[in-house]
Amino acid sequence: MKILYVTDLDGTLLNSNSSLSKYTMKTLNYLMDNGMCFSYATARSLSSAEVVTKGLNMNNPVIVYNGVFIVNPSTKERIYSLCFSEQEKETVRDFLTNSSIYPLVYGNIDGIEKVSWIISKENNGINHYKNSRKGDKRLRPIETLEELYKGELFYFTCIGDKKEQLMEIYEYFKNKEEYNCTIQKELYREEYWCEIMPKKATKGNAILMLKNILNCNKIISFGDAINDIPMFKISDESYAVENAVDELKKYAKNIILSNDNNGVAYWLENNIKNK
Q1: Measuring CA to CA, how many Å separate 141 from each of 57, 120, 199?
Q2: How are beta strands 139-142 and 112-118 bridged, if at all?
């Protein structure tokens, strides 16, 4: 039986410093070198994920933007991708503009991946986002609303200091058949993020595709947050790290050590030989 082991990054594989411990790095590279079929599924972009997983010898496609893309990390080729239609894009633009919300907008502009925001509408969350990604070639600060929604778009992130500021957005989009919408507190910070994606963009859907691509028979997953629920639902076995939110733990087969205690790597080292 060929098993696909797939993990979330932030709060799960990465420690509280958003990095891989030496133990986790060494353990995963050893297991992959010896045949473990391993990947990650993250809300990050590929460029952002590669920074925090530097030194990890990934040899399988990875899932980014919560399932919007499956990407070959070696060639940067998108094996699978989703984008909004023009009508879907206009619906998001009109609703957010009428609500005086100005999001981070992710899209392809002239074939190049960019994340855009209006300079005059920056808040604490957007400032932290851009400052933590200095040198990222995707960053595209702009000045007008027209520029904000330019291109082939695939992801919107609305950031607010309080959850209540974003609930109107979440309530509007959560049951619309064209969209997948999530809201959760940002890890290690006070802001809340409401994210709008194409309907089929979930970690669960992308992992099922990856399972077929890699000819695997079984899925074992690891996570910490509510965006990992679709992944847990389609997994044969799922494990929540000790620091995971309670809502996710309800879907887990078991609870493992926290991200700061190398929970995923420790579990793999001690269990993979028995699978």
Answers
A1: 33, 10, 27
A2: parallel
**229 closest CA partner among 250, 243, 259:** 250
pLDDT tens column, 69-107: 999 999 999 999 999 999 999 999 999 999 999 999 999
Could you say which DSSP state residue 186 is in? P
The structure tokens listed for 173 are 């989009």
Q: What residue segments make up the domains of the chain, in order of their start?
A: 3-81+201-274, 86-198
- Contact yes or no for 156/105 (Cβ under 8 A): yes
Q: Using the Cα atoms of residue 220, residue 225, residue 230 and residue 232 in order, give the sign of their dihedral.
A: positive
CATH topology of domain 3-81+201-274: Rossmann fold (3.40.50)
Q: What is the tens place of the pLDDT at every residue in 102-158?
A: 999 999 999 999 999 999 999 999 999 999 898 899 999 999 999 999 999 999 999
Task: Report helix angle 22-33 to 263-271, nearest 10.
Answer: 30
Q: What is the pTM of this model?
A: 0.93
86-198 folds as: 3.30.1240
